[in-house]
Amino acid sequence: MTGVDFLVNTSTSKGYKLNLQTGLFINNEFVAGAKTIDTVNPATGEVIASVQAAEKKQVDDAVDAAENAFNNVWSKTTPQERQRLINKLADLIERDTEELAQIETLDNGKGISMSRNVDVPGIVASLRYYAGFADKVHGKTIDTPGAFSYTRHEAIGVCAAIIPWNFPLMMLGWKLGPCLATGNVIIVKTSELTPLSALKVATLAKEAGFPPGVINIITGYGAEAGDALARHQKVGKVAFTGSTLVGRLIMKAAAESNLKKVTLELGGKSPNIIFDDADLDKAVRWAHFGIFFNHGQCCCAGSRVYVQEGIYDKFLEKFKERTEQTRVGDPFDETTFQGPQISQTQYDRIMGYIEQGKTEGATVYAGGSRHGDKGYFIQPTIFTDATPKMKIVQEEIFGPVVVITKFKDTEEVIKLAHDTTYGLAAAVFTENVTRAVEVSNRLEAGTVWVNCYNQLDTSSPFGGYRQSGIGRENGEYALDNYLQVKTVKININRDV
Length: 496
Ligand code: NAD
Ligand code: MG
Known about the structure:
Helices cover about 35% and strands about 25% of the residues. It is α/β, with parallel strands linked by helices. The model has no long low-confidence stretch (mean pLDDT about 95).
């Protein structure tokens, strides 16, 4: 389709005017998809815009564009030029922080102050961190008998990223940064629930001067566009963030096609352990932030809180008080902490877990119901009296629901902490440094926070033990996901 710009005008509940891009971004152009998908404002349930959605044909187009860009342009640019472009994109995103924050809040429902202070700075930080690595990707020389040997750390080429809806901009940054800095090209499939902010980033990638085909951003349903990417013969690597269920499908699709490299950042049911000697007020604040940040829609959410018996009653009382003060409401209100859940489906799922918890015999100690009369808001909810095998203790709810359980000693709590299939994150609250280190060492989790929660940054690796994933994102470790190592041996004095 030529002559169509796919731009849609809208404005937020506070009157901020937006001109939204809704095309598929392939080869630096916005193009039509096979169909359209409505994206909804979760605070109201109203449609914001219809976006173009990819199926196999558009995925093929994006992969062809990427392959062409890699072979003919990107693999020939210098690391310094790649670094300059990635930094330029970060600068443009920072310049347009307000517009991007407004889009993110409209499409996802997170509080505007979160979008401004966490999500937009998050993608900027990722891009700048990895831009710094672009000219520092190199191999080693190895002393071998009779030969001069060295390694080259080479780009894979065409990479794909499939990202979720809970942090649309940040997840985009976590994928774009290391992928581009190591000299690869990329096709990103955004979540069909939150496609809008990444399309704004696409316009900025073009403005920054990225050559056509280096960055392609498409949306579409997981089973269509996502699956087509995961099983594409020309895609050399797929990086996925989302549910464990879909993570398995991604691995299967890779296995059934070309054995592309796979990294998975999946779900969790993270334990937050609070010992008797913790600073109680601080522990209450962090534990509240640990579960209710982003409305509980965090893969690393501290959804199982274990409190030692000596402070259990006091903790519970203070935690309830803080929970009932959580500011739930219009995400465009500057003081809102908790906005709506992402969709009707997620709303129903979470309410289903709350009902299940009650049926299985746990106690709703606070919340447990819908908040307000429109949109997908749920009261921050506390369960007590739960037992280890209940669904609300075992499964990722991905909503504002926490289970608080009493424990006696370290041995008991470590056992409880490990009694799920996950291992993404954990936390320990104690003023005793020996206990902090000993318990952290024993916890099977990719990240352990001590006396804090949800503290992520671009330089510290993040990823899962057990069924919470494969590979690490962030930090220097993430570079390996996008590189392959070649050994070159030059004979010096050997003969056969
Ligand atoms: P999901 O795993 O279904 O979706 C994540 C991404 O994968 C989306 O872009 C989706 O379109 C895509 N996808 C879905 N099916 C696919 C397939 N067959 N092949 C390829 N791609 C596919 O997650 P969801 O439905 O948005 O949420 C469901 C649950 O997933 C949540 O309740 C939560 O437990 C979990 N989740 C975890 C994270 C995380 O950060 N770890 C993020 C979002 C959701
Ligand atoms: Mg939406």
